Fold this protein.
Amino acid sequence: MATDWLKGNDPDADWDASFAEELRGSLVLLGITYLDSDETVAEVRQHHGYVRAVDPRWGITVQIGDIEAKEEVNLPPMLNVFEKAEEGFYTDNAGNGVINPDFIAYFTVRCPAI
């Protein structure tokens, strides 16, 4: 299910359509840290997958795992967090290996106080 990350606001005027197109189809590594309301780390997830869609309103959709996988994650439309990855072998916290990903991105999710 897609998320309207902008909630009716206009897309970023600085949206880099060229980079968005370069990102589409690329192999990415994702690090997502979840923080409790007191900034304590609640969970850390590491994923790898292929970027399936890049849209300034609907965000960045990554198909988690290999090309046959069914799980997807929808990320905010933040192109600036994706950095070119150095060549090499990467291992996530579940022991899965990835060779020569295209990009790496890190996200922090802060949970509000209840």
About this structure: The two ends are 25 Å apart (CA to CA).
